[in-house]
Predict the structure of Sugar O-acyltransferase, sialic acid O-acetyltransferase NeuD family.
Amino acid sequence: MNQIKLLGVSQDSVALIFDALEHLYQIEYFNLYTNIAVDFKPFLPVKKVDYAILDHAELNNVQTDKYFFGTAGGRTKRLVFEFFQENYGVSREQFVQLVMPNSYVSAASLLENATFVEPGVTVGPQSKIRFGTYLKRGVTVGHHNDIGEFCDINPGVVLSGKIKIGDDCIIGSGTVVRDNIEIGENSIIGVGSVVTKDIPTNSVAFGNPCKVVKENKL
């Protein structure tokens, strides 16, 4: 694979993505395409990384091109994807997965494209991780779970079994979710929560036990 084009730019995330792409695909030069004007200050990696930041008008999408995101936040990735899909015909099928070594993904599970799995993650059998979702270091996904699109599952989260998480959710670091729980789309679960009951759509919730504290209006 000669080149993977990155869509969107985030100062905080792009170094992690560069590292993963270099490790998994041996790519050492990156083009990042922006959909909005950005003030991107070059970072200083230990190893020199060659990259170019280009305006979206310079993108020439052909069916064989491969993509990933240059940003990590689920909400931002959704907006970036919708922009490039509508204006340049970029499809979900053109995105690669980033599954880092020292993670375990069951052969009986399903990872959709544009998923990012950091080291130390475990994904059990019959679980689905949908488009654009990010599993960060030390996450445990048990059996028969269904995690929606563009979710951020933060470090150390434990998802037991038969859990459904809707699209665009953020699950805070160290959260534990018991079996047979449903978390509605566009919800935020605070750091260290213990979720023992279903969480409605568009909720902000935290605590042990986890309780809804307000509506998520974003």
Notes: The first helix runs from residue 14 to 25. The first strand starts at residue 5 and ends at 7. The chain has two helices and 23 strands.
